[in-house]
Design goal:
The chain has about 350 residues and is α/β, with parallel strands linked by helices. It is built from 11 helices and 14 strands. The strands form 3 sheets. It has a 6-stranded mixed β-sheet with strand order 6-7-8-3-9-10, with helices on both faces. Helix 3 packs across helix 4 and helix 8 packs across helix 11.
Length: about 350
């Protein structure tokens, strides 16, 4: 199985259940990760990142591809060495106590790690035995997971015959067999159809609510972070640019947002600059900023202000491609802190033949 976070077979020590000295279950301070450039410039994928996660919290890392989300989560789960900084998980140091940490965490990565030649039941059974769970307990836990993940009818089929959504649920189950204290999920719903994604969301809500599990989620989906997470850190270009609950982050904007997209022609930049000047002069606009496609303006009275902005842009003959009025969303939060909108890369559905070995 690829990238499975499993304890080393020769590790007999039990995990230390203590919390960190700062009262957090996960405590990250001044984390830096630099990749060698191979003869070119070094790449600083994570740049002085600090945050903490409390026990029982549903915490999210929100950011675009390449922001550093996966690098951070792989370092915390002991899959990748850090360049500098400190990380403690349940009071344990990731470098010194890696084996003990792996005993109390579950991890589901972006790449599905199930074995296509094994059945669904065999995949879960294998993970349980790798964690040295008693056979009776493994059997009980496997049957429970097959039921809640809606895989019972397909439990004895080889995993390569599963659909993409079924494989993703099986992979999620593999991270839950040993009933981890902390569950790490790296973009767990990428590539899933909306129906399957909603089913996974509902299961994660139930897991968090009923089992009081600490869940650390990375995602590039605004809605996913908004729906699931109690607290979010927005990360961009290796740095955390905002942190708080979804409600707090949206409330901090404190206004309706008018978004004006300028027609892209030869005079686009000049038109955008002029649109910014106009927006700033409109009564009721508290703040106006440029983003990659146009101008956004914040106002307490969106409807009335929108009409005046459009009237003035028309008078000045500024070519407007599209205009929108919205209440604050995480998309606007990201735009405010980075000066650009977050685009989610289109992901192709997972192929049905994943995990099958050639004979």
């Amino acid at each position: 199985m690829s990238e499975a976070v499993t304890p080393r077979p020769d590790s007999k020590k039990k995990a230390v259940p203590a919390r960190s000295s700062k009262g957090s279950l996960i405590d990250v301070r001044h984390l830096v990760k630099v990749y060698a450039g191979g003869g070119q410039e070094e790449v600083k994928a994570v740049n002085d990142v600090s945050f903490s996660v409390s026990e029982g919290e549903f915490f999210g890392f929100l950011g675009p591809n390449g922001a550093g989300k996966t690098t951070v989560i792989r370092i915390i789960t002991t899959l990748l060495p850090k360049t500098s900084g400190s990380i403690r998980v349940a009071g344990m140091d990731v470098e010194r106590d890696g084996a003990q940490i792996r005993r109390i965490i579950g991890y589901t990565g972006q790449s599905i790690g199930v074995d296509g030649e094994l059945t669904g039941r065999e995949n879960l059974w294998l993970i349980g035995r790798l964690y040295h769970m008693p056979k009776s307990l493994v059997k009980e836990r496997v049957e429970e997971l097959l039921e809640v993940l809606q895989l019972k009818d397909a439990a004895d089929r080889r995993a390569y015959t599963y659909s993409g959504g079924m494989r993703r649920r099986l992979d999620l189950g593999a991270g839950l067999v040993h009933h981890p204290r902390i569950l790490f999920l790296d973009e767990p719903t990428t590539g899933l159809d909306p129906q399957t994604r909603n089913a996974v969301w509902e299961y994660l809500r139930r897991l968090h609510r009923e089992e009081k599990m600490t869940i650390f989620l990375t995602t590039q989906y605004m809605e996913e972070a908004d729906q699931l997470c109690q607290r979010i850190a927005i990360i961009d270009q290796g740095k955390i640019v905002a942190e708080g609950s979804p409600t707090e982050l949206k409330a901090a904007i404190g206004a309706d947002i008018i978004t004006v997209r300028i027609t892209r022609d030869e005079a686009f930049e000049k038109s955008r600059d002029r649109a910014l000047e106009i927006a700033r002069m409109v009564p009721g606009v508290s703040r106006a900023t440029i983003f990659d496609e146009g101008v956004s303006a914040h106002t307490a009275d969106g409807g009335a202000t929108l009409l005046e902005v459009l009237r003035r842009l028309d008078t000045e003959k500024v070519p407007v491609h599209q205009v929108a009025l919205a209440h604050p969303t995480l998309d606007e939060v990201f735009l405010q802190h980075t000066g650009r909108q977050m685009r989610v890369e289109e992901v192709k559905p997972m192929s049905r033949g994943f995990g099958r070995r050639r004979r």
